[in-house]
Amino acid sequence: MQVNQAKSQFVAVASIAAELSAVMEVAKEISLAAANAKAIAFRAGEKAKGFQPITDFINELAKDTIELVNNINEYAFHLYRLTVNEQRMTEACKRFEKVEQLAAGARYADSLTTSLQEVRLRTQLCHREFILQVSELLIKLADVMHPARAARVIAANSRIEASQAGEYLQSLQAVAESVDNAAQIINDKVHKCRSALTIINVAE
Predict the structure, then answer these.
(1) Reduced to 3 DSSP states, what percent helix, strand and coil does the chain have, rounded to the nearest 5?
(2) How many domains does the chain have?
(3) Contacts (Cβ under 8 Å, ≥6 apart) of 24
(4) Taking the chain (204 residues) in consecutive chunks of 10 residues, what is each chunk's mean pLDDT?
(5) Which domain of life is it from (predicted)?
(6) How far is Cα 46 from Cα 164, in angstroms, rounded to an integer?
(7) Cβ atoms of residues 34 and 63 within 8 Å
(8) What are the counts of helices (DSSP H) followed by strands (DSSP E) for the chain?
(9) pTM score
(10) Domain of residue 50, residue span
(11) Rounded to the nearest 10 degrees, how much is the dihedral formed by the CA atoms of 12, 18, 20, 24?
């Protein structure tokens, strides 16, 4: 593993962890918005009858997003461990190679060859697993985009239903705006995660 490559992997994994943390917070905000909307719709009664089932959809989307992000976090943590392991094994390879050079011509110098080959093989296997996990994570991140897109559609429908809620119009429209904004933030954060992973793939 080259120094620049190792650095890019660490930066990418750290970036993903930060972005996913932000997505989780936004998903929790959506869940809170759903609870607030449900309370407002209940008070509005018949005026917001069409809005009430929408709050359930919003809450389900928030739960789905949180579940997906929790799952993705496990992949991100695994990528971090793989990066650390690969870096350690790369350093071990360098030390073995240096010792092998210094021991050239010594009586038992050949005994180092097997150990060096084993460390090289383990490093290669670790890197292959890293690349495989990157591909899996890209797929998982694509899954998060589905609830984000659905949230934007629901936000649009929420505005329509809110327009019929009389004095509760502004309160319900605020909910719709918060869901729409949250969906956009999630979309942006996930896009940043995917970009970070794509850069690693291109660098391979």
Answers:
(1) 90, 0, 10
(2) 1
(3) 66, 69, 70
(4) 66 82 86 84 81 83 86 84 84 82 73 80 86 86 84 83 81 85 88 80 52
(5) Bacteria
(6) 10
(7) no
(8) 4, 0
(9) 0.75
(10) 3-203
(11) 180
